[in-house]
Amino acid sequence: MTQKIRMDVEIAGVRFKNPVMTASGTFGSGAEYGEYVDLDCLGAVVTKGVASVPWPGNPAPRIAETCGGMLNAIGLQNPGVEVFCQRDLPFLKKYDTRVIVNVCGRTQEDYCQVVERLQGELVDMLEINVSCPNVKEGGISFGQDPRSLEKITQAVKRCAAQPVIMKLSPNVADIGEMARAAEAGGADAVSLINTLTGMKIDIHRRTFALANKTGGLSGPAIRPVAVRMVYEASRAVRLPVIGMGGIQTADDAVEFLLAGASAVSVGTANFHDPCVTKKIIDGLRAYMERYGVDDVKDLVGAVREDISV
């Protein structure tokens, strides 16, 4: 008898066919990857950051490889919300997958302008990026102060037609405190972690590898930090948690689910394997079949606390 596997999950009233999403900034708005992976198979496409007006981003060089990861200082370059609505959304709505729009800004008004513009669009959720470490002003200040985070969450919720995910920064002393601030502000979910702030120096040229000097570290090197923070955040709040940070395989995804994530986002791995999300979905199903897990939701937060077991 074939085992019946349930892969669907629900977050803030939105149902996803499986818990595997793309991470903002690593998948564009889907068109770049459409020839490599069937977007219909994904739980959701999370778009690149969208601002109220076009952003040019940071000067080059903006990317540097590191051991076990990469540094980026793109600076959230994007064409603005109007181009996104006219060009990218029509493409995404051709597919049977959820659409989560990542929203960026420098001020509270910036965020709210984008959220208001998206009210009548076919968007399933909003992910509010208050934690980008390579933008010199704006988001990072909201993401590192609990009072500011609560305030901007409240402001966004007042003008949002869709459920709101607050994307948390790992560059804080207490991730649980930040998750509670988002919850107090009315967030419907939280996602974490965004990149860790890092730096690389070219020892031969004796200069910084990135024009911005610092950048966001992503990739497998940060995964243990991300798993720990997802675990802490999921126990600090009642909100659903979307986990990310160095996920490359189905095993990595399962680790985040066991730590307390209701879903996962795959980021940097897309750069070296455009088909990685489909492989993770298939691998997650194989894991469930191997261990007799009928419903993926049974894995969420199921890590055994007694290490002697």
Q: Rough shape?
A: globular
Portion of residues in beta strands equals: 15-25%
CATH architect. name: Alpha-Beta Barrel
CATH topology: TIM Barrel
How many individual domains? 1
* Major β-sheet annotation: 8 strands, parallel
CATH superfamily: Aldolase class I
Number of strands: 16
Mean pLDDT: 94
Provide the gyration radius in Å.
18 Å
Oligomer: single chain
Instruction: Give the class-level CATH name.
Output: Alpha Beta
List keywords for this structure.
309 residues; alpha/beta; TIM Barrel; 31% helix
Describe this structure in words.
It is built from nine helices and 16 strands. It has an eight-stranded parallel sheet with strand order 3-16-15-10-9-8-7-4. The protein has a four-stranded antiparallel sheet with strand order 5-6-14-11, with no helix packed on it. A two-stranded antiparallel sheet has the order 1-2. Helix 6 runs parallel beside helix 7 (250-259). 31% of the residues lie in helices and 19% in strands. The protein has 309 residues and is of the alpha/beta class. The relative contact order is 0.16.
Give the SSE map.
Layout: E1 9-11, E2 14-16, E3 20-22, E4 44-46, E5 63-66, E6 69-72, H1 81-92, E7 98-103, H2 108-117, E8 125-129, H3 139-143, H4 146-159, E9 164-167, H5 175-184, E10 189-192, E11 196-199, E12 201-202, E13 207-208, E14 214-218, H6 223-236, E15 241-244, H7 250-259, E16 263-266, H8 269-272, H9 276-291
Parallel strand pairs: 3-16, 4-7, 7-8, 8-9, 9-10, 10-15, 15-16
Antiparallel strand pairs: 1-2, 5-6, 6-14, 11-14, 12-13
